[in-house]
Amino acid sequence: MAQSVRIVAQRALPIHLINPTDIMHSNLPRHLNQPLAIGTKSIAKRLVLAPMAFLGHVAFRELIATFGGYGLLFTEMCSAKSIPQENRFVSPYFKWRDEERPLLVCQIFGAKPPLMAAAAQRIEAEGFFGVDINFGCADGSICRQNCGAALLKDPELAGRIVAAVRKAVAFPLFVKFRTGWKDDPHLAVELARRFESAGADALTFHPRVAPDRRTRPPRWEYITMIKQAVSIPVFGNGDVFDRTDCWNMLRATGCDGVALGRMALARPWIFAEWSEGRETDPGVYVDTPRNLARLLMKHYDPPRALRRFKRFALYFSANFRFGHTLYSRISKVRNMAEVEDVLRRFFSDPPDVVSRPNMNFFSG
Question: Given 78, 106, 137, 246, which residue is catalytic?
Fold first, then answer.
């Protein structure tokens, strides 16, 4: 398959951090395959799927599992209020495969400590690896409920939520959060210490302010400050698009692991590539969207399957020089049968794959 190379502006980094020789000699896989203790459990790999609302669903996680290479998978965001009564076979969100539970963390959102604690108890009883508290989502519909990133404005309440969950469960407790609502790393450090004191076993930190829709680069130096402030594992998150980015984040910040979001959507096989040093067959670009379409139809009714596929298609289309054509066509389809027709037509000739995904698709 023909490969094309795009030149994309890189963030400025000290020259000593960029060492292709280290990567070529497998230092990245060696580092990512070091075991990491998290609370009462441990993981074998330090590259994990970041929790993503409406994107980290059961079908996408099953797709990633066919490739392997990850340390943990995270569910999409689930409402703590609903979880105690949810039926996993009916709920579009609180849904999982039994095979994935040992390495699956369920992310919850809510603003009331007792409800968050009750949700965590249900998740622990179901046999998940752990629970993750969402203090990072800045979507208006979530923040208007005083959930997600809105709770960063009330550190005392956020701390009480973490403490209530810690008291209710024994399995690993994660917290995902952003810098805050102002570009103040010292506040982020205070939040990290508060979460650790309240009983968090690990943190996933995205170093952007809550209102920022990725208009500015994440401040990786803030990850360094968080890592130096706490004794629990810290996963870095934000603008890790290739092996060099991953290696540089680990070396520059000292974080314990890396959480991949948008790049996992664009290339679900990326965990196997980076953690295990595998080379991916070019045919994966043709097979992956078809396999996801099949898995979506397995787990969801047709309307839900179609909505989820369209969300995935935005990021997957970033892989191609003419990805805007692919996404435009998929966004207009009315059913999953039309999705298959679009894919067949687009891949009738080998697509022109770019070395680094088009960042214009990742701005949403």
Answer: 137
204 forms beta bridges with: 176, 235
* Full DSSP string of 222-272: HHHHHHHH-SS-EEE-S---SHHHHHHHHHHH--SEEEESHHHHH-TTHHH
* Residue, of 17 and 344, whose pLDDT is higher: 344
Residue 270: CA count within 13 A, CB half-sphere: 23
Query: Which of 2-6, 165-169, 237-241 ranks highest by mean pLDDT?
Result: 165-169
Give yes or no: 137 in active site: yes
Q: How do residues 250-268 score in pLDDT, each as one tens digit? A: 999 999 999 999 999 999 9
Q: Is the pLDDT of residue 301 over 90?
A: yes
Backbone torsions φ then ψ of 221, nearest 5 degrees: -65, -25
Residue the block writes with tokens 């800045």: 138
Amino acid at 263: M
Which CATH code of 3.40.309.10, 3.70.10.10, 3.20.20.70, 3.40.190.10 fits the domain covering 22-276? 3.20.20.70
